[in-house]
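Human: I'm a chemist; would you kindly supply sequence and structure tokens for a protein?

Assistant:
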Amino acid sequence: MAVKRNQARLHRQVESIVTHCKALQSPLTMQEQQRGRLETRRVSVFSAVGVDTDRWPQVKTIVCVDRQRQSEGKCTTHRAYYISSVSASSKTWMTIIRGHWSVENRLHWCKDVVLNEDKTYGREPNALLTASVFRSITINLLRINGFDSLKSALRELANQIPQIFKLLQ
């Protein structure tokens, strides 16, 4: 589970442990260069001793992920914390977290930004869920048919009903 700043007490406990305690194992660092930017990720795993066990009885580990992105002469850094009931290596956590962000970037971001899901208004939960399912189907159909960019696919297919029906075959 991601630890956010709005969980003030837990965030302070986790931040204190990461600042003052030694990691359970050597941190794992990974670099990736794509789309003109260099991103460095560092994953460290800590024991959760010191986290409120009354509130978080199953927590065993704290995972700290430091990200540094360099692009066009600018450098940004971000730190994220996670708590878990699973004890695993830094390498395993790197894989899990990258997998989560892959889903976030390839599905949720596309639905939110490209298909404007966050701007969908309505009161009927079933209608909102149905619309979300259709967005997911649309994304999958476009990807299956070779479109890497949803924006360019939507531009290319705008008002092209015969081409759209071909995608469904």
